[in-house]
Amino acid sequence: MFLIVALITLFLLLCLGLGWWMLPERRRVTVSAPRRRWRLPRCVRRHGVLAVVAALVLVVPPLLVVSLRQNVELKPFRSTDLAESHSMIAELLRGERLVPPPPPPPEVFTNAEMRRFHPEVISADRRWDKVDGALRQRVLAIYRVMKQQYGVEMVLVEGFRDAERQKKLMGKGASLAGAWRSCHQYGLAVDSAPLKDGMLQWDMEDPWTRRAYFLYGELAKEAGLAWGGDWTNLKDYVHVESRDRCLAARRARQARLDAQGGS
Fold first, then answer.
1. Regarding predicted confidence, which is higher, 135 or 85?
2. C-alpha dihedral over 216, 168, 188, 103, to 10 degrees?
3. What gap in Å lies between CA 25 and CA 114, rounded to an integer?
4. What is the pTM of this model?
5. What value does the mean pLDDT take over residues 80-98?
6. Closest C-alpha to 241, from 136, 86, 85
7. How far apart are CA 234 and CA 176, in angstroms?
8. Which tens digits make up the pLDDT trace of 178-191?
9. What are phi and psi of 254, to 5 degrees?
10. For the residues of 145-181, what is the DSSP string, one character each?
11. pLDDT in tens, 106-134
12. Which residues form the signal peptide (predicted)?
C-alpha cells in the first residue's frame, strides 16, 4: 500500500514538473538557451497542460483502484446461491425433480476385481430412497452434468450406512469416523464411482479416472457439497456430503442423548 502511494506521488510530481517546463512563459524565458538534441513532439509541446491532465486521468484512477482494492476475489457458488446461480447444476435443481437412473447390472459390484480389492462395496446399501432428498437431487444433478457434458457415467456405490457397518469399516481402516460420526449414518453422504467399459474405476494413477473424480469433486463443490478428495488425513475421492446439515444432525442426536441421560 505504501509503495503504491509513493509511486502515485512521484508520478504526480513528474507530471507537474513536465507541465511547468512546457508552459509558454517558461519557453520565453529560455528561448536563448542552446537547442536540446531531443525534443518532445510538437503536439505535446503545444498542448502540454492538456497532455498532463490526460495522463493523470488515464493513470491515476487505475493506480488508486489497485492500491485501495488489494485483493480481487470472485464470490464462489454456494448452496445458498441456487436462486441466483446460472450454472447447469443450479438450473437442474431449479427445474424438474430428478429421478435416479436405473442401477447397473449386479455384476458391476460382484465381479472378481471387486471381490478381491473392494469386498466392502458388495454389501453396501445403494437405495436412493435412504438418501436425504435434498442431497439426492444435488447428486443426481451432478450425475447428469457428468454424463451430458463430459461423457462420464457415475454410479452410486453406497448411500445410507448403519452404525454397525461404520464400526466395521473403521476397524478395517476404510474410514476414520466412528459410529454416528459419519454423515452416511444420517443419509447425508454418498459414495460414487465412474463407470467405464462395465467396470467401476478406482485407480487415481489412470489419467481418465483421475480427471473423472476431480470433475466430480468440482461439481460437488459447485452444488454446495463437501468432497472427500479435499480431505488431508484420508483422501476419499468417491465421497460427497452435506456437511452443515450433517453437523446439525450430529448435534441434534447428541442433544437427545444428553436429555435422555439427564431425565
1. 135
2. 60
3. 91
4. 0.65
5. 67
6. 136
7. 8
8. 778 889 999 999 99
9. -65, -35
10. HHHHHH--EEEEEE----HHHHHHHHHTTS-S--TTT
11. 999 999 999 999 999 999 999 999 999 99
12. none
